[in-house]
Structures
1.
Amino acid sequence: MKRLILFFIVIIIVVSIFILTKGGDFIIDLQENKKYKIEDIENVNINSLEDIRFFDKGILTFNNQKIIYYDFNGKILWENKNNVFTNEVYVTDKYIFRRLDNSIEIINGNNVTLGIIEFTGEIVSVSRENDKTFVVSRIKDGQNSLYVLDENNEVVVKDKHFNNAITGVSLSDKSEGYALTTLDFNNDTPINTILFNLLDDVELWNFEIKNEVILEISIVNNNVILLGSENIYYYNNNGKLMWKNSVYNKIVSFEIDKIEKRIYILYEQDEKLEMISYNFEGKVMELYSISENVYNIKLFDSKIFGYDNHKVYLFHDSKTDKLYENMDGNIINLKVDNNYIYIILNDEIIKGKIK
């Protein structure tokens, strides 16, 4: 009996020493070697109209006169039909923006019209960031105009004109301001103007970047990240360049993770694809060689996913896990929320849990 007790004591001591010295690495190794998959898969049929998008906590499908909102179980939550035909319907995470003559109607997830704002020109884009919304319109003579709405959908920047095409807007997470890029050409040479404005129409700084096209602008802690066709730039809040990295191949898709401070870029590499993640100091953190035909990457809960027409992948620890494959239908979009994944096909929603 004493020998048995002594044996168990020795085992406990050995296991404790292992956990204290190697256990953390062992757990990390298990996580890195983990292969993710989707379990409890369900197929939900819906009747889609001309366009279909994720919206709030469900699926929105619409055409030029009608909007239908489904939950993820295929139940119709509401329908909205208008006698006025419009091809300008834009969907953000929580609001629907529908063009009506010389105004825009704002509809929430309960099918309630929150307001109607006066609007001129043709809608180019609608996006939301940090509980604010910006709307870009195209007006006469090639000019663009900017509208910014606050968290209460009140207009705080109205019909601000820019001589050139607005190619990107990012709303600050630390101040009442925004960064914006415009694009012009001089003898086929692209000229980008980058500026930082306060919402009360005070310009803090601006500069030009030539000989490439700026694809994305993002504000992080009042610093500005620019993703161009030739370079990646990182500027501080005074407009001073902190670092620049060259872009060595054609960019297919990209994402910026503000929480984990990562920049993910999917490149064409010869006949294959390659994805690189940078930190906000410009250092390469991860490299993925991708043999599949992934054409889009998306970021959810600081996890990076990729998909093509028929397959969905999860990238982690420099590895690629295939989560889903359907050769019969085309994948339109995907969304992940707390490890639950939702995949939109033409008239079908695929849902399950990532484990």
Note: The radius of gyration is 24 Å.
2.
Amino acid sequence: MTMNTSALTSEATVSLNIANMFEFNSRHARDTDDESLSRARRAKENFGVSAEAALFWGGATRRRIVITPEPPDADFLQEIQELLGVQIESFSPKLVTGWVCRDLMRDTACLQRLFDMLQNEISSVLPWGFTSDLLRLLSHLQDSGLSLILEESNLPSSAASVDYLDSKIGSRSIFEHVHHKVPEFYAIPGYACQNLDLAKELASTLLISGSDPLVLKSDRGHGGSGVRLLDSIDSAALTFSEILTTGDGIWTDTPVLLERAIGGGTKPAVPNFNGIVGMNGDIRTCGIGQLKISGFGTYVGMEFGVNVVSDEMLALAELAGRAAGDLMRELGYAGWYDLDFILDPSSDRLYGSEINARRTGGSVCIELADQLLATDWRATMHVSSYEHVKIRSSLAGYTYLRPAFADVRRSLSGDCGIVPIFTRSISLKSAYVGYVIYAPSRAIAAAIDNEIKMLLGKLS
């Protein structure tokens, strides 16, 4: 497959945004039959919710074609187009496996529609992450004569590097290399175990000998899953019993990490670097911010901009992030990536936690801010996402949610705003919504958040 990998996204006339989140996260099951994939998809109640993030990708490209496993709410789609001043054409193939590229390749009518839309266009391809089914789709489109730009996508030879870099073992090895380039940055002290049984024995030995609290990480975990805190012999026994009882597949036949719990099991700050390894080899910094973690250790959003990360930490995070990008490029990777760090509150040391070799929730904040705010927003504005805000009951459609956002917007000054990002979630049994708020400070953003939560709480 020969594609245009030297042209810049700015030359594109349309962005082709492919929301293959479910496909990427379960890509290790690439040889699984359709019925098994379909069962897994049906068992995931919030399937397809995160796919709405693809509506916000595209930067300065004013026309977007977005492929999602299920269609977004029409009112929500219309509102996003009006807010961003872009044209978005969203469509979904016949839902079978939920792997959007695979389903699209089998839906000939939908595939022909896509081909017709992309004829005579220069299309910048923006996927969530690299998969073998994405490669097959792009090869088919290229062989059909379409002009594609892969500035943020991977070459066929990159499949192994994606699997390696997006694993906990791969992340850890990159961090050890980064430490040699940036001595002020550290890999977390720990051990790589071949399997869960070995990790259980090693954890018991360490905790009995008086070890600091430990963090147990499955090599396959994603989205915060596959991470457990072991702060005592008793908690470790309960954790391993729970894992074995539930039979969670992310712990089966996979390496497991045991690492020291930075901060002694308390909640440390979690800075974050987002960047792009370009197809031409350039490393680009997109944004440096911080993960927002609830009191229960659950990821709930991102924040970027003024006073989120100190100037000293910004500089160190960028050095480490770009050094990691250089190493990823050497392994054949190209595309969006992020690094999650942990800041030790007792020493101010910056440690590497994990690498995501794909787009992330942070990419939505960054792209929204780049499209809506002045170019210096990172130094003058606070941009924060709230990705799992619970509401009391499920709603039939976005029509019922839209007035709450409209009411809040009417009370805002011109330098503040709120943008809904996840709305399919309002129909779930445990309903929630997601949005991004931008304001001159964290305090003002928090006040806006309180106002929207008060209005959402009145919905029934």
Note: Confidence is low (pLDDT under 50) at residues 1-8.
